[in-house]
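2024-03-11 09:14:02 DEBUG pipeline.ingest accepted 1 chain
2024-03-11 09:14:02 DEBUG pipeline.ingest length=415
2024-03-11 09:14:03 DEBUG pipeline.predict start
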Amino acid sequence: MDEALRPDACAYPMKRMTFMSCETLDRPGDPSQRTDAGMAEADQISQLIGDIYDASLDPGLWPLALEKTCRYVEGMSSTLGSHHPTEGRPQYQFEWGNDPHYARLYSETYVKLSPVLVPTLLHAQVGDVLAIADLIPYHEFLASRFYKEWAAPQGIVDAVSVTLDKSATSFASIVVNRHERHGHIDEATRRRMAVLAPHFRRAVSVGKAIDLHKVEAATLADSLDALATGTFLVDAGGRVVHANAPGQAMLAAGDILSGRGGRLSAPEPQGDRALHDAFTAADAGDAAVGVKGIAVPLATRDGEHWVAHVLPLTSGLRREAGTRHAAAAAVFVRKAALDLACPLATMAELYQLTRAEMRVLIAIVEIGGVPEVAPVLGISETTVKTHLQRVFEKTGTNRQADLVKLIAGFMNPLG
């Protein structure tokens, strides 16, 4: 919640919705033994996954998908967005259920006081389902200014999050806040979030591939040529039924993808199999896509790396985009971004700084001296001084100003 909130993001009325436990999905077992309740559960989850994929093409649908996500995992509010802990600005953000007053306070003040943003950037891996206690000691969270002044007044006692995408200096995540009436994050909550996680990841990847433009599903086929990303509509067998101009250029070159016999194919066998597994799964429905093929890697003969994101077109508003061409999936192909290590993680490894020492280091740089940092982190001034002294010793510095320069050097590629 790093920017001013979009007013329409919280405009969806509360709806009465019931989601049952996802135990049946956790243990598929013999289909003949599935109960009626389990089958209804699967249908409900499939609808939610469809809403997530619809929102990847029409961002205006994200608040509704987040509302249903809150109902399913039992939360009071939810936010999907990018986070730049070292810059304090998001690339995009969608939310549901956040109190406008506290959202504004977060944007203006508490984003810099959040005790979990930097640990998430440093330690969370893409796909991890994490509660607050997985990132920092929970007693420190309770003692922090963030909890006392921002979370506690709202009744927030925990949050479950999934890192969806990650770069050297930022990450994207889906976060569901838990009110005290819901209790702390338990294994059932983790399992439910894990069911949804790969679909959020795929939806964010598709949104990133089309530069988060608002492309209405009903006009997707007409909008393909406006995208710089190579985009294809394919049927369940991989037959190309529509390609935009960049996609046609890729097929003509034949080094990234080929269209021999009208079938979209990758030159490398493993990538080709992964693509067509994703096409087949997409034809079976949203939930069938599962965790495979979130980002299918493609390699050219000269060593360049590309990635394909497969979006099912078999349900929801997306069906309208594929009906005209009998398409089962849309494929977005773009050059893979350079995977750089997080500068802060590199710094921690170089100087062998612990998680606690890194938290103190970042707080000292962002917030100020020991008296100001202690209540923010929820630890005593003595503990802050102990960690700070160890940071000085490990980095060969002796002033806070030196630490500021040191971090600036790691964050700035010209430093």
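2024-03-11 09:14:41 DEBUG pipeline.report The mean pLDDT is 82.
2024-03-11 09:14:41 DEBUG pipeline.predict end
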